[in-house]
Amino acid sequence: MGRARGDPWPIIQEAAKIGLYSLDFFATQAFEESGLGMAVTIEELFWGTPGSAWPSWAPAWPPRR
Question: What is the pTM of this model?
Fold first, then answer.
């Protein structure tokens, strides 16, 4: 991930600004009444450009050991 590869930093920064990476967002979507909140969120983010969506969500996921 980096500027040389052309990662969409303005989009990633805007997503952070609106709280897309916050624990509150994850909790709200995970416990949404229909049960579809997280599934729809992930589908919409990754539908158009998976390469752009992954760097935006990777920081929110726990590291692998």
Answer: 0.52
